[in-house]
């Protein structure tokens, strides 16, 4: 049994594992992508998607190749869009069968090694194989210019010579291990110096071997993450083209893989046409549909489609194929905006009730935001009670308002005004709350303007009433627009093709209506 069962995979194996969808830091991307594709596949939602010709039969090999291609695309995408991406060791669930089997095999291996070393004379077969693996690991850390270190490792860890010494009873394994620890200290990152020091305090050979492989795994992880950070700038330049190519390969094997995108863009075009019809003067209502639809352009429809992702029903509706890899990110942004909406509404209600006395008071808005943020933590969990949280927020806000008013020489709220403010805050839970809908529409307008001006250096002006949450809103907007722009960079050819058909079809229908009238 030549491999050390205690150590995680090497960096090369870890990267390969990522490609096969087995890396924990990506939450098992292979299964994740396959599951999401199955969930979002048009065949899985026949009532919700347009009809299309059935896909051609594909072989198991083609499916596996396609799944691997999608997983590789997901990995490249994750590296590019996630600046904090790191390869991490896989951690098995504590009571899982896999972990129990692994622990049993590991124990058997190390018990066998210990038994061999306690024989008289000692048997070094397993120990020599472990030294061979250590030698390979140390050599893998070297750069082409490390000629002297390579010679040292090759000379000291000469397996043929070590075998001869073992056969003749002249092997000093402690001396070899001491060399290994010294070389690891030379090659490791400064962050691993403490682990290297701990190795020198271990006296028993079997625990020392286990600890050495544990530290080697950390070093390999460091090397792998360094490689990822090194290739990120170059990968960013090529990732859009790479993702587009991989998606095209997937599309060729699954021709109906744009059905959800088509429906998504069609709905965006319809929404935009209706919106523009409402904005037409009353005397144009007779041909309002014509006027609204004829003004549509591909960019405006795409922006409207991206805004729809912020109101998506992730439970009951599949996500469009081209944004599937970023569904979690869009959902996080959606949840952040929903919490920010409630925060902005509470602030606006509070300032309206308190009057100008508190508007410019330093630090007051931040205190209210902190209160709201803490009490709305977990607001998207099924067990969260919004009414109770808003009642508590009302109590806390009133106490903070009275405290600030008293500190600055103003009269505190009367019981009647407190009751009114608490009632207004609790009314925020109503979906039809006027103030909440106003704040929501202004947030959406700001994001729409930001999308339209995303290539300009300056941010669009923040609409009135959003001043207290401007910083948080701009942070979310920057993250959102960066995600949208990258998605456009990758998939714009597909969007243009789909929208070309949608907009042409719409114009044809309008021309037919005009000629009929």
Automatic annotation (TrEMBL):
GO biological process, one term: signal transduction
Ranges where the record places region Disordered: 1-58
Biased amino acid composition, Basic and acidic residues: 1-17
Alphabetized InterPro entries for the sequence: Tcp11
Coiled coil, from the record: none
UniProt family annotation: Belongs to the TCP11 family.
Name used for this protein in its record: T-complex protein 11-like protein 1
Origin species: Eudyptes chrysocome (Western rockhopper penguin)
Source lineage: Eukaryota, Metazoa, Chordata, Craniata, Vertebrata
């Amino acid at each position: 049994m030549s491999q050390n069962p205690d150590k995680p995979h090497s960096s090369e194996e870890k990267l390969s594992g990522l490609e096969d969808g087995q890396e924990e830091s990506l939450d098992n991307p292979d299964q994740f992508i396959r599951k999401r594709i199955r969930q979002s596949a048009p065949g899985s939602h026949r009532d919700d998607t347009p009809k299309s010709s059935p896909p051609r039969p594909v072989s198991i090999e083609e499916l596996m190749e396609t799944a691997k291609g999608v997983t590789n695309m997901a990995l490249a995408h994750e590296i590019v869009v996630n600046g904090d991406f790191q390869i991490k060791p896989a951690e098995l669930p504590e009571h899982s069968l896999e972990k129990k089997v692994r622990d049993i095999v590991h124990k058997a291996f190390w018990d066998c090694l210990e038994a061999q070393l306690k024989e008289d004379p000692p048997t070094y077969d397993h120990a020599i194989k472990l030294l061979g693996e250590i030698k390979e690991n140390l050599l893998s850390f070297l750069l082409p210019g490390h000629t002297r270190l390579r010679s040292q490792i090759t000379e000291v860890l000469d397996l043929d010579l070590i075998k001869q010494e073992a056969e003749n009873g002249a092997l000093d394994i402690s001396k070899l291990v001491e060399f290994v620890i010294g070389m690891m200290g030379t090659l490791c990152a400064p962050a691993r110096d403490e682990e290297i020091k701990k190795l020198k305090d271990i006296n028993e050979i079997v625990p020392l071997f286990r600890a050495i492989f544990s530290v080697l795994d950390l070093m390999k992880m460091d090397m792998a993450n360094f490689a990822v950070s090194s290739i990120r700038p170059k990968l960013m330049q090529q990732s859009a083209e790479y993702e587009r190519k991989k998606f095209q390969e997937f599309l060729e094997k699954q021709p109906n893989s744009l059905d959800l995108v088509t429906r998504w863009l069609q709905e965006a075009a319809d929404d935009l046409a209706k919106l523009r019809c409402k904005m037409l003067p009353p005397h144009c209502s007779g041909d309002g549909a014509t006027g609204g639809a004829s003004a549509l352009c591909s960019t405006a429809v795409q922006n409207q489609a991206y805004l729809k992702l912020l109101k998506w029903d992730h439970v009951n509706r599949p996500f469009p194929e081209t944004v599937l890899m970023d569904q979690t990110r869009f959902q996080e942004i959606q949840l952040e905006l929903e919490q920010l909406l409630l925060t902005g509404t509470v602030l606006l209600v509070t300032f309206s009730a308190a009057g100008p006395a508190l508007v410019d008071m330093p630090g007051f808005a931040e205190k209210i935001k902190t209160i709201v943020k803490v009490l709305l933590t977990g607001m998207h969990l099924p067990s969260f009670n919004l009414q109770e949280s808003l009642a508590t927020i009302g109590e806390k806000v009133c106490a903070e308002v009275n405290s600030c008013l008293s500190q600055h020489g103003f009269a505190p709220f009367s019981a009647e005004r407190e009751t009114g403010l608490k009632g207004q805050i609790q009314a925020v839970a109503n979906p039809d709350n006027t103030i909440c809908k106003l704040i929501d529409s202004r947030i959406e307008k700001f994001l729409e303007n930001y999308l339209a001006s995303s290539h300009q250096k300056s941010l669009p002006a923040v609409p009135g009433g959003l001043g207290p949450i401007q910083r948080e809103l701009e942070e979310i907007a920057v993250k959102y627009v960066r995600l949208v722009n990258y998605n456009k960079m990758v998939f714009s050819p597909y969007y243009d093709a789909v929208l070309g058909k949608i907009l042409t079809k719409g114009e044809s229908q309008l021309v037919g209506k005009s000629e009929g009238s």
